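Example with several molecule types.
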Amino acid sequence: MTVECPTPNHEDEVVLLGHGAGGRLTAELLDQLILPALDGASGPMEDAALLPGHRELVMSTDSFVVSPLFFPGGDIGSLAVHGTVNDLAMRGAWPIALSVSLIVEEGLPLAELRTILGSLGKAAQSAGVPVVTGDTKVVGRGAADRLFVNTTGIGQRHGSLRPSAALARPGDAVLLSGPVGLHGTTVLSTREGLGFESDIASDTRPLHRLVRALAPIGGDVHVLRDPTRGGLAAALNEIARDSSVAVEIAESAVPVPEAVASACDLLGLDPLVVANEGCLVAFVAGDAAEEALAAMRSAEEGAQAVRIGEVLPDGPRGRVTLRTLVGARRIVDLPLGEQLPRIC
Amino acid sequence: MKYLDEYRDPTLARRLLDELREAATLPWRIMEVCGGQTHTLVRQGIDELLPAGMRMIHGPGCPVCVTPLETLDRAMAVAARPGVILTSFGDMLRVPGTETDLLSLRARGADVRVVYAPMDAVRLAARHPDREVVFLAVGFETTAPANATAVLYAARLGLTNFSMLVSHVLVPPAMTALLENPDCEVQAFLAAGHVCAVMGWREYEPIAARYRVPIVVTGFEPLDLLEGILMAVRQLESGRFEVENQYVRAVRRSGNTAAQDTVREVFRVTDRAWRGIGALPDSGLELAEKYRQFDATRRFDVGGLCPVEDAECIAGAILTGAKLPTDCTAYGTRCTPRHPLGAPMVSSEGTCAAFHAAGRAPASVRSTT
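Resulting C-alpha cells for the full complex:
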C-alpha cells in the first residue's frame, strides 16, 4: 500500500461559527454571498435601514441566540428588546413598534419561557414600545437550542438627527457613553462557569433615551453606533471604512471595568473586541463635542460618557489607530471573528 | 485597579523608557522568550520606543506554534473518529494542519470543544462515560502542573475514557539550542515569568554562566517588560551575566516545588520535535510509564500520518528570531489570521499574529512609503 500525502489546503466551504461573530468573516459572508443574492444596495451597512418612501421611518431586525438564556444583568427576553431598540436608536430614531418571533425547542420548561416573556414584556414596556405582532414556532429536540428570539422594530427619527456610519468627518470627536466589555465577558463567564459572575453583569439596556438627549445637537451628531458583536474595535473600523476617515483613540481614555480587564487577561481577550449591549459611540463635530458630552451625561445611560479620540485631519483612511499607554501607536484591526459564539 | 493598573501606568512607563535611553550605549539585542511578552511589546509598541539601534528578538515561547504538525494531524485524525470528544485550548483550533484545522473539522461534524482548563476535560469524560474524551495537552512548564493534576484526577476517578495527546515542551533546552547556533545574535534573555513561577530560575543559572548571557525573569505587563529590559541592559552595560528576577511578585528562585513534584510524578523528560525548529534532546515531557493508559497516542491507532509543511511559511526563522514576520513574503497577503499558513499567525502568543493584530506593514510596503 502506498500512502499519498495530500496537498495542503484550507477547507472553508462550510459555514463556521466565526461567520456569525460580527468580524471579518461576517463581512466576507455578507459581501460575497448574502448581499449579492439579495441585490442589496451598495453603501454603508447601518444598524437600521431607512424605509423606502418614508424619510422619517427606520426598520431593523435582529435574532437572538444567546446561551445561556439567563445571565447576570439580563436574559434573552430583555436583550431581544434592547438590541432592536438600540439598532433603531443608532439611526436617530425613537422606537414605535416591535414584532417578536419565538423559535422554541421542544422540552423547554414552560416556567422558563414564562420568565423570559415576562422579562421581554417588561423591557418593552419600560422602553415605551408596544409589541404589535409576533409568531411562535416549536421545533423538535435538537433542531434548536432551547429558545431563539427574533425582534423587528420600526422607529421614527428625531427632527434633525440624521446619523449614518458614512458621515464621520475629520475633526470629529469620538465619544463613548460608558465602560466597555461587560456583556461579552458576563455571558462568557456565566456559560463557562469561570467564576467571575459575582463581580460582573451585562450592560444590556435601551439607549433610545440617551439618543433623544442628543437630539438638540442635531446635524452635528454625525455617527451613532452601539458596539455589539466585535466590540468597539469592529464599530470604529466600520465607521472608519464607511466614512473613509482615519480614526484615532487613546487607550488610556477607554473605560474598562476592573472585572472585565481581569477576565480578558485570563482568557486572552482584548476588551476592545468584546461585545457590549448598553453603550454607544458617537462621532460629533469637534466644536459640538462638549455640548454633546454634557447631553449624554444628563441621561442615566450616558452618565459615564467620555471622549476617547478623534477623526484625524489626515492619516490612513479607513483605519483605526490607538495611542498605547506607553505612547506608541498601533493599528486596531477588525477582529477576525472570534471564539465567543452566541453572546447575543 | 489592583495588580493591573499599577503595571500599566503611562507616566511610570515613560520614566522607565527615559532611564533605558540613558542606560543603553550600544545597540543591544535582547530576546523575550515568551509569546505573551511578545504580544505586550507589540500591542503597546514598546519595541518601537527602544533606544536607537536596540532591538528585541522575538523568541520561541509560543506553545501552539511549536507543537509539531504531526501532533496536530494526529489530533485531527483522532477527532474525526466517531464517539470521540476532542478538547483543547481555543488557540489550537485554527492552527493549520496538513489538510485542515480543528475548527473546520468541527463545522463538518466532529465533536471538538474548547476548554479553559484540563480539569474540564476530565469532568467531561466523567459525564460522558460512553464517549472517548481526549485532551490536546500542549504548552511549556506553565501548563504542565495543571495537566498533570488532570491526569491524577482521572486516575483517581478510575476513568477509562479519558486520554491526553501530550506535546509538552521545556524552555531551557530551547534557549541552549538558540545559543549554540553560531548565527545567534541574542545578547540577553527575558525569561518567561510564568514558566519561572512554576520552575524557579535555578536551571537558568548554568546557562547564564556558560554562555555569559544575562537572563532576567520578567513579567507580562508593560512596566514589567520595560523594567526587565532595563535590568538586562544594565547587566550588559556593566559586563555582568547573572540571572535576575524582575517578576518578584510571582517568582521565587526555587519556584513552586509542589507543582514540580506533581509534574515529575506524571510526566518524564523526553526528546521532542519543535515545529519550525526541529528535534531537541530532552526538551519535552511525555506521560510516565505509570500513566501510559492515559496516552492517546497509544489508545488510538490512526495509521500513517503525512505531515507536510507549507513551503512558503518561514515559521522556523520566526520562532528562532532569525527573521521578523514582516520579512515574510506571504505575511499579510497569502498568510493572514483568516488563512494562516503557519501557527505563528494563529496563536494569541504567535509573533506573526501579534504583528498582524497591531497592523504592522510588510517590509516591502514600508520601504516604498
